[in-house]
Write a structure and sequence with these properties.
2 copies of one chain form a homodimer. By secondary structure, chain A is an alpha+beta fold. Chain A has 2 domains: 3-145, Jelly Rolls, CATH 2.60.120.10; 150-229, Arc Repressor Mutant, subunit A (Orthogonal Bundle). Chain A is built from 10 helices and 11 strands. A 4-stranded antiparallel beta sheet of chain A has the order 1-8-3-6. In chain A, a hairpin with a 2-residue loop joins β10 and β11 (208-211). In chain A, α5 (122-148) runs antiparallel to α10 (227-237) and α6 (151-166) packs across α8 (186-198). The radius of gyration of chain A is 18 Å and the shape is globular. Chains A and B meet through β5, α3, α5 and α10 of A and β5, α3, α5 and α10 of B. Chain A binds a DNA duplex through residues 150-151, 174-176, 184-188, 190-191, 193-194, 204-207. Chains A, B: Residues 13-102 form the Cyclic nucleotide-binding domain. Chains A, B: Residues 149-215 form the HTH crp-type domain. Chains A, B: Keywords: DNA-binding, Transcription, Transcription regulation.
DNA sequence: GTCATAGTGTACGAAATCGCACAGTATGTG
DNA sequence: CACATACTGTGCGATTTCGTACACTATGAC
């Protein structure tokens, strides 16, 4: 495909790369569409590519082996990140699934090319390594959120995180879907949604949630939001 | 200090290194004692050293900013791992705390030395990068465990994980402490302990839990244990 | 042996969440 | 327009876990 202009990209990892590092990757990029419901990576299957997200939203899910239990979301990725961290960390498999939750675009790069680029550039390793660190922080924050916060606060957290990554105020989310993301019952989401709507934080329509008052949402989410995001910003600047 | 013999070490990461990679690190190692309750790393403070654990047990804790809420455990590290992954990933700070939970020993290495060694050896990057991946999997599994399993199953999981890392059957654990680790009330741990004891899985004494029937514990923990551990073994072999 | 202290056992109402079932309502398709 | 389908709203008892309080008991220090 035709080569990408670095400055025309939205992916923040790619934008922060030096021209040399970008040049290592750019020739191999292939633009791909992210279709709703598609699995970008499968659990325990070889990862052929890494994906730098340009737009849309990806959920990282972990399987619980427990019969009857659904997959649980451990993290989300948007244009600030990438899917395929295991490649960066030296392996080609992972027990996680990357699910497209909101459609968008990404730049795909073959695993061997990324691997080679990482081995030839210390600074590239720095940027992607720090992104891995920020993901660890994000997952850790999810542990905290699930341990200490009720459904409403977690819903608020999730909405704000999604808004960040989609860069829009209207988010295409069904209750069914949110229940999966938060690991709760579907009616529990309905109730929590009403609460947020009653408080003027959001407007809920069929299959869509619109953010009305981000400040109030943040207030409700208290400490469960923010740490990972601040860490991400800090890490990106370190580059 | 005197140089370490690679084969006399217990740390599994160090043992799996090639002699050249080990040689990069060995001259800088300093043996340190891990004292109960000591913080090996502090949240958001510069990490001066990484620690390859020889014995004992370390908990990785994340602060919830929420007032009144306690720290929550997101992962544990024993002789299979290391503390100070952020250094491997290209930064010197992290919002997590590494708390010594059972005393032991570790080999400390100054961050700049580790950094330099990583930059000069692709294989070393491979081993420690894959360890980072295994930690991500472990934290993800914690998310699942907290979402889908009751206190008893989570207690069983935690006991088995601790047994793995201490290499003993008698574990120095108070209910108070376990309640912190599992993110539940202290009396909840007492009740769960009784259940496991009644089922012949453990013997509980003041400040100590002895594993009697690991098989039954695993059965109770169901899918919440095993995935991360299998992934660790797989990743170590890939080296 | 006495004593302070850390650790453990138990109780009980309150709250959150669950599991399930079913009714209602947008939305798009033919 | 009719209809199937997906999504949302609601109810209710069951269950888990919480918050809190208090009593009891090993254990080690003196």
């Amino acid at each position: 495909m035709s080569q990408q202009q670095q400055t025309s990209l939205r992916n923040r990892l790619l934008r922060v790369l030096g021209p040399n590092d970008f040049g290592l990757l750019a020739p191999a990029f292939e633009q791909v569409s992210l279709t709703l419901g598609h699995h970008l990576t499968e659990a325990n299957q070889p990862l052929g590519h890494a994906y730098f997200i340009e737009s849309g939203l990806i959920s990282l899910l972990a399987d619980t082996v427990r019969p009857g239990a659904n997959r649980v979301e451990i993290g989300i990725v948007g244009f600030e990140g990438m899917v395929g961290l295991p490649i960066v960390l030296g392996t080609r498999r992972s027990p996680h699934v990357a699910l497209v939750q909101a459609e968008g675009r990404a730049l795909a790069i073959p695993a061997p090319v990324l691997d080679e680029a990482l081995n030839s550039s210390r600074t590239l390793r720095g940027v992607l390594g720090r992104y891995a660190q920020s993901l660890i922080v994000q997952v850790g924050q999810t542990v905290c959120a699930n341990a200490d916060f009720n459904i409403e606060a977690r819903l608020a957290r999730w909405i704000v995180m999604t808004q960040d990554r989609l860069g829009r105020d209207d988010l295409p989310l069904t209750h069914e879907f949110l229940s999966l993301m938060l690991g709760v019952r579907r009616p529990g989401v309905t109730t929590a949604t009403h609460m947020l709507e009653g408080a003027g934080m959001i407007r809920a329509q069929r299959g869509r949630i619109t953010v009305l008052d981000r400040g109030k949402l943040l207030e409700l989410a208290e400490g469960s939001y923010g740490g990972a995001e601040a860490e991400y910003e800090r890490l990106l600047e370190e580059g």
